[in-house]
């Protein structure tokens, strides 16, 4: 007897959201199944103590992203696009930070989608001009948020959570780049993964 396949939107999916930054980069991971949303983790990559060495910060972003990918096996990355400011050098650095996060996901064959900041705010709050505080307040109203280590990190982490939630609301309708998910790659290539990551093969197969 062949059982019918479940609709794609009813299968569990893990979305990673990233709010790029050169000193603090917010990240979040949510699991969605239909309309149900579970927050797995939201926090930041804190690089404030690394001084002005931009190369070390980029390395930190790439390595931490890989750690998160291997731990949670996200299916897709949703990342906020850099906003245009008056400081060209800051924009260049922010773009590099965003690029490292994207590169880490692409190295694990995880597709990514980019969202404008106004699109993220509009999806979560209903207005593209909402403040960070307003975004965080709306997320508190709509989601059960686990505690976070330091209150000072909260707004950067909730910004990333908003990006992930925006992607869920849009159902990935923005143009997607990249290939199949890292979880799917693990399921198809168990012999290519060793160590602790291999222990997650069963979870990847169940998706």
From TrEMBL:
Task: State the superkingdom.
Answer: Bacteria
What the entry lists under InterPro entries is as follows: RNaseH-like_sf (IPR012337), RNaseH_sf (IPR036397), X-over_junc_endoDNase_RuvC (IPR002176)
Q: For Mg(2+) 1, which residues are the binding ones?
A: 19, 156
BP-aspect Gene Ontology terms: DNA recombination; DNA repair
Q: Which GO terms describe its molecular function?
A: crossover junction DNA endonuclease activity; DNA binding; magnesium ion binding
Cofactors, names only: Mg(2+)
Reaction(s) catalysed by this chain, per the record, are: Endonucleolytic cleavage at a junction such as a reciprocal single-stranded crossover between two homologous DNA duplexes (Holliday junction)
Q: Keywords of this protein's UniProt record, alphabetized?
A: Cytoplasm, DNA damage, DNA recombination, DNA repair, DNA-binding, Endonuclease, Hydrolase, Magnesium, Metal-binding, Nuclease
Region (Disordered) location:
188-207
Q: Where in the cell is it found?
A: Cytoplasm
* EC number of the protein: 3.1.21.10
The main location class comes to cytoplasm
Q: How is the cofactor bound?
A: Binds 2 Mg(2+) ion per subunit.
The keyword DNA-binding appears for this protein: yes
Enzyme active site: 19, 80, 156
Which of this chain's residues are annotated to bind Mg(2+) 2? 80
Any one GO CC term of the record: Holliday junction resolvase complex
What the entry lists under NCBIfam families is as follows: ruvC (TIGR00228)
- Subunit-level organization: Homodimer which binds Holliday junction (HJ) DNA. The HJ becomes 2-fold symmetrical on binding to RuvC with unstacked arms; it has a different conformation from HJ DNA in complex with RuvA. In the full resolvosome a probable DNA-RuvA(4)-RuvB(12)-RuvC(2) complex forms which resolves the HJ.
Of which family is this protein a member?
Belongs to the RuvC family.
Function noted in UniProt: The RuvA-RuvB-RuvC complex processes Holliday junction (HJ) DNA during genetic recombination and DNA repair. Endonuclease that resolves HJ intermediates. Cleaves cruciform DNA by making single-stranded nicks across the HJ at symmetrical positions within the homologous arms, yielding a 5'-phosphate and a 3'-hydroxyl group; requires a central core of homology in the junction. The consensus cleavage sequence is 5'-(A/T)TT(C/G)-3'. Cleavage occurs on the 3'-side of the TT dinucleotide at the point of strand exchange.
Output this protein's name.
Crossover junction endodeoxyribonuclease RuvC
Q: What organism is recorded for this protein?
A: Hymenobacter telluris
